[in-house]
Design a protein that fits this description.
Layout lengths: L1 H29 L3 H13 L3 H14 L6 H14 L3 H14 L6 H15 L3 H7 L8 H16 L6 H28 L3 H14 L5 H15 L3 H14 L17 H5 L12 H4 L4
């Protein structure tokens, strides 16, 4: 009995000591300055420990909602969320930053990072088309990324992120056109010629600078002929000949019916991620 009581008292003392140490540590952390917490967060980011960085940035913003470190902490918190695979929280943080600090010196980076977050969410292009060929996949993230990059170019044409944003916009525009062409092909193979022609026409009207325009015009010719609409078919063929005189269809050469889905989408191939490591282009200054 005496031995049991002794062990109990020893355990109780150890627990109290640990609790006191934890309390002292917490008090010490609670009294740290904004700069000290900010430096801890920056150090965690340098070590790629984004989860720890997030906890520091959140602590900083909770304790010091105003101050010279607060504004930049919002941006770096958003970047930490992005790198920690928490895109929704990254977007929410960036939206709050853009609304609260519209004249911040790094506001262009906020728009760029917002576009980059959605661009990355939409990066698995192959999986989307292979798994979703039979559906009209909503490429919401691609469209949101495109619009955000467009906003950056329109409002901040001298931004250091302009060149990379422009490249990503080209990639996104091609991706959206490829998606529309995939759906047009799907409808055509199921004899839904009106729906197929409408998808193809959408490509010509909204993505005129993409490689898919030629294939879209061919699709329009085929659909209108299948619908016995000779005038629209002739008009589409005329545009195809004018802009793509060397196209096989103009020369009377049909693509093989059994050509693979991916070959129809990308006959010349495409680099799905041609911009290198994000770490080199997305660090905040």
């Amino acid at each position: 009995m005496h031995s049991t009581l002794t062990r109990f008292l020893v355990i109780l003392c150890v627990a109290l000591m640990l609790g006191a140490c934890a309390s002292d540590k917490k008090k010490k952390e609670d009294h740290r300055s904004a700069q000290e917490i900010y430096q801890s967060a920056k150090h965690a980011m340098e070590l790629n420990n984004y989860q720890l960085a997030i906890s520091y940035y959140k602590n900083l913003l909770n304790k010091y909602p105003f101050g010279r470190h607060t504004e930049q902490a919002h941006l770096e918190l958003a970047y930490s969320y992005f790198k920690n695979a928490e895109p929704d929280l990254a977007i929410t943080t960036l939206n709050r930053f853009i609304k609260t600090y519209p004249t911040h010196p790094n506001i262009d980076y906020a728009h760029y990072l917002k576009g980059l977050v959605n661009f990355s969410r939409n990066a698995s292009l192959l999986d989307r088309f292979i798994d979703q060929e039979k559906s009209d996949r909503d490429l919401e993230f691609a469209r949101e990324a495109f619009l955000e990059f467009a906003e950056l170019l329109r409002e901040y044409p001298e931004s250091r992120y302009e060149e990379d944003a422009r490249k990503r916009m080209v990639h996104l525009r091609n991706q959206l056109a490829q998606h529309e062409l995939a759906v047009a092909n799907y409808y055509f193979r199921r004899s839904a010629y009106v729906a197929s022609a409408n998808r193809a026409k959408f490509i010509v009207e909204h993505y005129p600078e993409t490689p898919e325009v030629a294939s879209a015009l061919v699709m329009m010719v085929k659909c209108y002929r299948a619908l016995d609409l000779s005038q629209p078919a002739d008009d589409s063929l005329r545009v195809l000949k004018l802009n793509f005189p060397e196209h096989p269809f103009v020369q009377g050469v049909e693509l093989p019916e059994d050509e693979g889905f991916m070959e129809r989408l990308w006959p010349d191939g495409i680099d799905l991620w041609p911009f290198g490591d994000d770490d080199d282009s997305s660090e905040s200054s």
